Amino acid sequence: MAISMERQSLKSVILRSAGYDVVQKVLEIEFTSGQVYRFSSVPEKTWKGLMQSPEAGKYFSEKIRPKFRSRLVGA
Asked: What's the sign of the alpha-carbon dihedral 36, 37, 43, 48?
């Protein structure tokens, strides 16, 4: 099933934007490099934590990258 989601800008050195599909629990992150990854089975509270974090890059590195499966979907 194709997912189309709107991403919101992030203030981060490594992250440009992030979007979330609440139904499928998919988090999409665009890096400042231009690469876009989708992370599966991400709880909504993790998405909200990322968006509310004063250090989005650190939150991503500690709470998302090591815990959820991802795949490259764009560059």
From this structure: negative
